[in-house]
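tool_call: predict_structure(chain=1)
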Amino acid sequence: MRSIFLAAPALLGACSTAPAAPVQGGPPQPIPVHGVTLGHKCVTAGSDRFIGLAGTSEAGAAIMRATHAAILRWAPPGYMLTMDYREDRVTVHLGSDYKVTKVKCG
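tool_result:
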């Protein structure tokens, strides 16, 4: 039993990650922020044209291109979603017929 307590710190230490060392003479590395993918910020202007389309991978790819999102999240009927906001994510709500009912950032 005591060996478990001795091994626990070593096992937990293996889970941590050290930040990457900056390259000398190179540009400063951006600090990663949860919910942000550099160069991607979801904008739903004009996304109403996708309402009524079938929820297919092709429609998802087109929605991502149109909204400039880095992450696509499908929201089928009855599924629970997290409440965290990500500016780089688009959420596509589907109706019971699995057609797009709403396109929303976050």
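agent: The first strand starts at residue 71 and ends at 75. Proceeding to next step.
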